[in-house]
Amino acid sequence: MTEPNAPYHAHIYYDPAERAAASALRDDLGKDPAILFVSPMADRPVGPHSIAQYEVHFLARSQDAIIAAIEPTGLRALVHPLTDDDLADHTTLAHWIGEPVELDLTVLDPPGHNKGVARFGGRGF
């Protein structure tokens, strides 16, 4: 069982035609007290993400509610924990909503060196 206070986040993906829906979801999630941080929208590929996206940070105990908020929008999303294994976080531990987006796995941190944990940890964990 996942620790309820374990750090999680979701990547919300969008193409230009979906930007308005993604922005509306971002605004809604930003009002949710379970959300710890919502990143700015990145209208270009960033890191392993091959299309525009933004991040939503939350704790494991809020995962079901976050997924339930994303699913009706029709947007694609990758929901995953933040562990010490960045590759597993984005693959075997990940939950996709909608059609998966191609990821560049070569840019992820090696196991045991997940810099995302430290960055995420700086957001109130």
TrEMBL record:
<keyword id="KW-0223">Dioxygenase</keyword>
<dbReference type="GO" id="GO:0051213">
    <property type="term" value="F:dioxygenase activity"/>
</dbReference>
<dbReference type="InterPro" id="IPR023389">
    <property type="entry name" value="DOPA-like_sf"/>
</dbReference>
<dbReference type="Pfam" id="PF08883">
    <property type="entry name" value="DOPA_dioxygen"/>
</dbReference>
<protein>
    <submittedName>
        <fullName>Aromatic ring-cleaving dioxygenase-like protein</fullName>
    </submittedName>
</protein>
<dbReference type="InterPro" id="IPR014980">
    <property type="entry name" value="DOPA_dioxygen"/>
</dbReference>
<keyword id="KW-0560">Oxidoreductase</keyword>
